[in-house]
């Protein structure tokens, strides 16, 4: 009997020792699993936090550009093309893009770990003119602040953007402004262009005539008429409405009117066969 008891106890102790050994093995396996997992996590964190931002070339994502292609804008910032995210200079990119005459503003956001988002705000033309460049005559856009600029892609001429001639411009360096005395006229043109009625659709050209006093006057050329209209420097909605009414009235009275003069508060006109009339 006692011999059986001892053998039973010994067997139980052996099974208990076997279970403890199995638990220790499983604990070691779990421990190594967590160690390996922690190492993988640390390596991935190092890659994400250090390697990608400092070694991988930054990915630039463009938005806002309508007249400039992404390839063109990428060439503009080509000095930064091989920079990593950490070495990509927002101020340098801003300076390079601002040198493009048709770009008014730039917003740059760096997003960890390797993205650079660049939003381009293009200038909005309110008028256009033509400038002789070498042996060519090229169209130049003008914004409401008087900045002259060109676009990478040619845009179809809009009837809401008038042609303004007579501005003294000899060359077109990027970002050049028209003389300050003409900027008030461009602000007036911009205000009229924002109206619901497209008044400039009836005008083919606004010509600036300088005066000896340093001031200037305007000559307007309606599209569907051979009559030009002389007026002062104030260009408003009311002034344009008055011009259109005067043009209709005078053309009703005379069929061969060459010029209508509205500069002095009354309506004077000159036909091609007379020296002048007024009423």
Automatic annotation (TrEMBL):
<keyword id="KW-0812">Transmembrane</keyword>
<dbReference type="GO" id="GO:0090529">
    <property type="term" value="P:cell septum assembly"/>
</dbReference>
<keyword id="KW-1003">Cell membrane</keyword>
<keyword id="KW-0472">Membrane</keyword>
<keyword id="KW-0131">Cell cycle</keyword>
<dbReference type="InterPro" id="IPR013685">
    <property type="entry name" value="POTRA_FtsQ_type"/>
</dbReference>
<keyword id="KW-1133">Transmembrane helix</keyword>
<keyword id="KW-0132">Cell division</keyword>
<feature type="domain" description="POTRA">
    <location>
        <begin position="59"/>
        <end position="123"/>
    </location>
</feature>
<feature type="transmembrane region" description="Helical">
    <location>
        <begin position="29"/>
        <end position="51"/>
    </location>
</feature>
<protein>
    <submittedName>
        <fullName>Cell division protein FtsQ</fullName>
    </submittedName>
</protein>
<dbReference type="InterPro" id="IPR026579">
    <property type="entry name" value="FtsQ"/>
</dbReference>
<dbReference type="Pfam" id="PF08478">
    <property type="entry name" value="POTRA_1"/>
</dbReference>
